[in-house]
Amino acid sequence: MFDYKLLAALAAVVEQAGFERAAQMLGLSQSAVSQRIKLLEARVGQPVLVRGTPPAPTEIGRRLLNHVQQVRLLERDLQGAVPALDEGAPVERLRIALNADSLATWWAPLMGDFCSEHGLLLDLVVEDQDVGLKRMRAGEVAGCVCAAERPVAGARSVLLGAMRYRALASPAYMARHFAAGVTAQTLARAPCIVFGPDDYLQHRYLAAMGVSGGFAYHLCPSSEGFVRLASAGFGWGLVPEQQVQRELASGLLVEILPGRPQDVPLYWHHWRSGGELLASLTRHLERGVGEWLVKT
């Protein structure tokens, strides 16, 4: 039989990215959390964590974390079916990974009523859409919005639609760098803006334009900051169309190549044995996201 206090310690260390914060969350000493991890490792006969900064789950650790995620969701279903079990139960927190551009655009207006109706608190982990699935694979989250289609073992994926990006820059930047027109040569010399080291949107756009090799870029790991930098003339960048309607209407930003959007498909991943809460959330996303994303 599993000792769920030990599994809760493992989940806390991974989710809180360290023993000290895990101890604070669990109301224990750091030594007590460490002892629970050691006892869990003794029982399974192998390490469940790689002691790094932050600690990372081993393969068996990931399997245990996946189990914990699903048990938490099934417990919520049971509490709903047996009201006596709900007395004194902690408020449910659902840990979800999603890309920053979804968080900056469609996620909040779509999810607000759902969270209120279900008494749900979200613990959001922001990752680039190209790598967000690693959080599911590590057992850290119960669901994920990302660009990867293939789900991890024990999960399923649903195509939500595509987020449409436009390559934008300020008029002053256009005059400075593209006075002679936007070509592979001028693009190769003009600095752009990249969200982070896992963001390859600009790379793919340049490759499609015939630009190969390295190029100059600013790194800006903030969706709102990305737009501000582009508006201030730092560089050009691919921005979600729905995020910059006012900037486009006012002329603060313009397309560097009109009529050449880039659509990025977004998939919702969730555990198959995630209980009614995840099933309801999946139905809610499928029904409502069409207002925000492009059909593919």
Characteristic terms for this protein:
seven-stranded mixed β-sheet; DNA-binding transcription factor activity; 296 residues; 13 helices; alpha/beta; 19% strand; D-Maltodextrin-Binding Protein, domain 2
- What is the fourth-level CATH superfamily of the domain at 163-263? Periplasmic binding protein-like II
Helix percentage: 40-55%
Main pleated sheet: 7 strands, mixed
Distance between the termini: 46 Å
In CATH, the topology of the domain at 163-263 is named D-Maltodextrin-Binding Protein, domain 2
- Helix count? 13
Structure at a glance:
Helix content is 44%, strand content 19%.
Strand-helix topology:
Layout: H1 4-15, H2 19-26, H3 30-44, E1 49-50, E2 56-57, H4 59-81, E3 93-98, H5 100-104, H6 107-118, E4 121-126, H7 133-137, E5 143-146, E6 155-169, H8 171-177, H9 184-189, E7 192-194, H10 201-208, E8 217-219, H11 223-231, E9 237-240, H12 245-250, E10 254-255, E11 262-271, H13 275-288
Parallel strand pairs: 3-4, 3-5, 7-8
Antiparallel strand pairs: 1-2, 5-11, 6-9, 6-10, 6-11
